[in-house]
Amino acid sequence: MIKIGILLGSTRPGRRGEQVATWVHQRASHRTDAEFELIDLRDHPLPHLDEPTPALLSQGRYEHEHTRAWSATIASCDGFVMVTPEYNQSIPGVLKNAIDYLYAEWNNKAAGFVSYGVVGGARAVAQLRLICGALRMADVAPQVTLPLLTEFEDHTVFTPSAESVAALDTLLDHVVAWSTALAPLRAAGPVAVAAT
Ligand SMILES: Cc1cc2nc3c(=O)[nH]c(=O)nc-3n(C[C@H](O)[C@H](O)[C@H](O)COP(=O)(O)O)c2cc1C
Hints:
globular
C-alpha cells in the first residue's frame, strides 16, 4: 500500500490551512488505494536551514536531529498533496524552508497541490511546480484552487463547493496513480546528482 503525505504548508496562528488540510485528509481517508498521513509543519519546527551541507550533496548525513526527524517523515511517503496558501504571490517561507532541507527524500515521488488565498493561490502553485521539478518530483496537472470569497463563509469558515470536492477527488486519483507508477524508479535508488 503506498502512502501519501498531506503536507500542511502554513504555520501562522489562526491559519485557514488547518481546515483545508483536514478536509483533504478526511476526504482522502475514504479511499482504499493508498494510506494518507497529515504532515503539519508545526510538528516540525525547523529553524532556517542550518545544515552545513546542502541535502543534494549530503546523502542523508545530517548534523541535526530535527533534520533527521523531518527526513524520516518525508522518506516514509511515496507521494504528496501539498496544501499551500498564497503569500505575496508565492508560497510561505516556512514551506520553502522545509522543502529545502531535503533532496533525495523528495525524488521520484508525485505531488499534487491544493491552494487557497484571496484569489485562490494559483500563483503559489505555479512556483511550487518549479520547485518540485528541481527536486525530481512528478507534479500532476489537476489542482484544487480555493478563493476565500467563494469557498470560505465570511472569509473564515471553509465551506468547500461540490466542484472543489470533485476536483480534489480527481487530484487524488492522479497523485495515487503516479505515486504507484513511480515505485520502480524509487526502488532503483537515489537519482544521480547532476547540475541543477
Ligand atoms: C503575508 C501574506 C501575504 C498574502 N499574500 C496574498 C497574495 O499574494 N495573494 C492572495 O490571494 N492572498 C494573499 N494572502 C492571503 C492569504 O492567502 C490568506 O490569508 C490565507 O488564509 C493564508 O493562509 P493561512 O491562513 O493558512 O496562513 C496573504 C496573506 C499573508 C499573511
